[in-house]
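Quick log. Single chain, no ligands specified.
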Amino acid sequence: MIAIGHLADRIAGGAPIAAAWPRHWKALTLDERKEVQQLLTTAGFDAGGVDGRIGPKTVAAVKAWQKARQLVADGYASPDVLRDLRTQ
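-> predicted structure:
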């Protein structure tokens, strides 16, 4: 859906996307997703268990963790989130 919106903006004469795509991000592996859930749980954020599935509870836990650290609370369990959870 976002792509359609951007295409419509371009057709209407809008400027191209200004930001670069975060190509350094990769999808987390199953073990990394489990680690995110475990680290969130250990930090006091309910991820709904440790199963490696990023469902609504894990997204909510990531958002709460991000908000507590005054980060952009998008709920995305990114490699950067994993890195920061490891160092807390």
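The mean pLDDT is 92.
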